Amino acid sequence: MRILQSMLTALVSAPTRIGVLGWLQDREFDDAPEALVEAVLSATGEVSSLVCAGRLLDQIETMDASALADLVAHLAESHDLDTAALSAAAAAYGGNPDPKGLADIARLAEPRWVELFRRLNATDGGTVRLVRLRQRVLDMGRKNISAARLDGGLQSLLRMWFNPGFLILQPIDWSTPANILEKIIAYEAVHAISSWDDLRARLAPEDRRCFAFFHPLMPEEPLIFVEVALTEEIPRAIEPVLQIEREALAAHQASTAVFYSISNCQPGLAGISFGNFLIKRVAQELKQEFPELKRFVTLSPVPGLMKWLRGAQPDLAARFDGADAGFWNGEAADQEKPFLAAAMRYFTRSDRPDGWPNDPVARFHLGNGAVLEQLNYGGDRSGKSMAQSGGLMVNYLYDLKVVESNHEAFHETKAVPLSSALRQLQKSVSG
After folding, report:
1. Whole-angstrom Cα distance, residue 126 to residue 6?
2. Is the dihedral of CA 86, 87, 91, 94 positive or negative?
3. For burial by CB atoms within 10 Å, which of 1, 7, 54, 405 has the most?
4. Which pLDDT belongs to residue 428?
């Protein structure tokens, strides 16, 4: 009976709320951004707050970079902490640590603009609009102190709102709506999708899979997606994986799932990690669908290698810079041993002050509990790969039985776990 009563109340009150909303939308407001900020924060009614918040977001989305920077500065200066009140509340709590005093500290320790973002998020489409706003705030750079301060609060809110428990894992295939497929093409950040035929070759065959995370409030905006090839062996090169005209493998014959491309889609969610959850979720999904799968590996680029090599061994780097097909037909064989020796040095000995591995992709996968399994010399001979990786690709192995213990060990020691084959390679190239 209580549920039925709630449903009837909602049905009766909905037209009233819509009517109030329409009346407020017709009212005259001061559309100056600073006035709208104050109107949103001072509104005592939910509906009036939503109307003002919607108008403020409309204003923000029409601002050029200079106007937005002015608004950001205004928020940071005029709606920051009341430090005097916070100090007084902390002193009072020190003398009488009661629940009310603690609540006062919690309220005063939060800048007013954090509440502004909460109210903006409550508007229709507010979540995706705030993600886009954060992208623009990030574009201002860390030297903009006001932007950096606001971003800290906005990132914390987005991290809560995009908690992995809220995310929805969905397969992407050739039957996925075209507007989503167009975004997959646009957001692919590792191996560019050159045509619809190229996309079809990655989604339609029996031995290819793609999965994406979505948020319930952003149902048409993928957050991150991973492309998977089902193979019989661990691949050493990307070209056969991306080949458009090929004979597909019967999926049940595959023993290996290869994560060959992971792309983040929303720059406004930078610093909020989804990839670690995505890989493990997809591995579990695939294992359920194909119990025959024995290995879960990546085929990954090494985006920082050539930059490091130009500083560490410039003569060796010069042999790979600008190398074309002729290089791979001739000189490449002579350069393999010194190049792999340098690569092993790059992976296993950190030059960073914090001691973490040099390569960002390595930090990501090893931090998720993977093992550095295999180095593939000449695995990607495209111009982009030659400039970033010297053509090298690597496989990281995810052993689902020990991935959590690997994760804990890596974060405790920062030591790069190597397969037995790579331990042997390390001995041979260093001798």
Report:
1. 26
2. positive
3. 54
4. 85
The domain that contains 192 carries what CATH number?
3.40.630.180
Residues 6+ apart with CB under 8 A from 147: 69, 72, 137, 138, 140, 141
Cα 189 to Cα 165, 193, 202, 265, 278: the distances in Å are 25, 9, 15, 9, 16
pLDDT tens track for 321-338? 988 888 998 899 999 999
Domain boundary among 280, 298, 316: 298
Q: What is the Cα–Cα distance from 208 to 51, expressed in whole angstroms? A: 46
CB 299 within 8 A of CB 259: yes
Q: What is the pLDDT of residues 281-312, one digit of tens each?
A: 999 999 999 999 999 999 999 999 999 999 99
Of all helices (H) and strands (E), which one includes residue 76? helix 65-78
Domain span holding position 334: 305-430
Which are the catalytic amino acids? 300, 365
Residue 15 has a pLDDT of 42
User: Do 206 and 103 belong together in one domain?
Assistant: no
Token digits for 46? 């939910």
Q: How far is CA 210 from each of CA 66, 182, 201, 259, rounded to the nearest angstrom?
A: 40, 14, 11, 9
Strands 295-298, 256-264: parallel, antiparallel or unpaired by DSSP? parallel
